[in-house]
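Troubleshooting: if your tokenizer reports a length mismatch, compare your output against this known-good record of 123 residues.
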Amino acid sequence: QLQLVESGGALVQPGGSLRLSCAANGRTFEGYAVGWFRQPPGKGREFVAGHRWSYDSTDYEDSVKGRFTLSRDNAENTVYLQMDLLKPEDTAVYYCTARWGETSRSTSAWTYWGQGTQVTVSS
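Known-good structure output:
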């Protein structure tokens, strides 16, 4: 069983940066695809970024390309989402997720989820 714990959410001004962390308990991320989704107020959960184990490329939703970066620290068994040039429309609860094998943009494809961390972008 993979248990995911997110941290790093905060209130930040437009144009600012945040780094979200997702730590795995119970087992390592080796072999797992990892992803980040978000749920804006009053809306459904939406794909942000996903990465398949040992692949070079990461899949990003168009609105975050060039601003967000997903990375892994295998030694620390942690996944990060670096968010730069934040906009008010990035306000959401952000969720870390994992599944064995391929990444996916579909919420239903993912197996393990963290509890979520709130990101608010406002002046």
